[in-house]
Every structure is written in structure tokens, then in C-alpha cells.
Amino acid sequence: MKSIARFHNHIPSFFDNFSFGRELSSAWTNGTATPSVNVVEHENGFRIDVAAPGLPKEAFSLNLDQRTLTITAVSEAKKETNDGENYTRREFSYSSFKRSFTLPDTVDSDKIQAGYKDGILSVDLPKREEAKPKAARQIEII
User: Fold this and answer.
1) 26 or 125, which is more confident
2) Nearest Cα to 50, choosing from 139, 133, 119?
3) Phi-psi region of 123 (alpha: psi -120 to 50; beta: other; left: phi over 0)
4) What pLDDT shows up at residue 6?
5) Which CATH code for domain 33-80+91-131?
């Protein structure tokens, strides 16, 4: 039993000596992530909420090409170091994502707005006036 326990204790350092061990662990903790998204339709338009806690507002980019809205974010987690530090290994930490949405013809693309608060990016997509529901009315017969 003691030999199994000793072997088990050496497994992490064993994989640290090979590049695929570092790449595998980095792929799971860093890289591309896909955030959760809610899309809501209301009377005057749509709203896309993207859950991206921990990212600063400056990390986001929104691009509209024809009817395709693309939301991207790139962030680098900087680790503070003190002067005179000598490290033998330091892993970079980047995260990014890209989501694209095909917008319906009813969206007024000139009035799209976005805001970021409490880890949620909200994109407001107002409907064109002609696409909004009209109030019921009586039609006069002539």
C-alpha cells in the first residue's frame, strides 16, 4: 500500500515533465470559453444577455455585419510579480469567446445599444416601428 501511495504522490510531477501535461491542463483552464446567453423578446425589441463575470467592459467588442451581430471578448489575467523575482515557470492566462447571432429583419440596426453591469453584457435590439404591434382600431366603412 505504501508503494501505491508514493507512486500516486509523484503523478503530478511526472506529467509536469512533459509538454502535453502542461498543454492539457492549460486547455481546460484557459483558452476559448462559451458564455451562457439569454435572448428575450419584448414588445419593443429583443435583448441579448451574455454572462461574462470577471471580464472588464474593455474586453468586449461588438460587430454588426449586415444582419449578423458578433460579440467577442479577449482578456488576459495579469499576475503581479515583485522586482527581482526569478521564476522557472510561469503560465499565461488568457480567455476569449466569440458568439454570433443572425438578427431578424425586424431589428432597427441603427439603434442597437449595449451596456455592461455586474458581469452581464446586455445588448438591446429595438424593433423597427413598422414591426411593433399596432393597437387595435376600428375601421370606418365608406
Assistant:
1) 125
2) 119
3) beta
4) 45
5) 2.60.40.790
pTM of the model as a whole? 0.64
Task: Please choose, from the candidates 64, 40, 57, 58, the residue with its C-alpha nearest in 3D space to the C-alpha of residue 112.
Answer: 64
Instruction: Burial-class residue 130 by CB neighbours within 10 Å (0-12, 13-18, 19+).
Output: exposed
Sequence-ordered strand ranges (E) for the chain: 31-32, 37-42, 45-51, 60-65, 68-76, 94-102, 113-117, 120-126
What is the spatial distance between Cα 48 and Cα 53, in angstroms, rounded to a whole number? 15
Question: pLDDT category, 94, cuts 50, 70, 90?
Answer: confident
List the chain domain ranges.
1-27, 33-80+91-131
Instruction: Compute the average pLDDT of residues 113-120.
Output: 94
Reference 99, options 24, 26, 38; nearest CA is 38
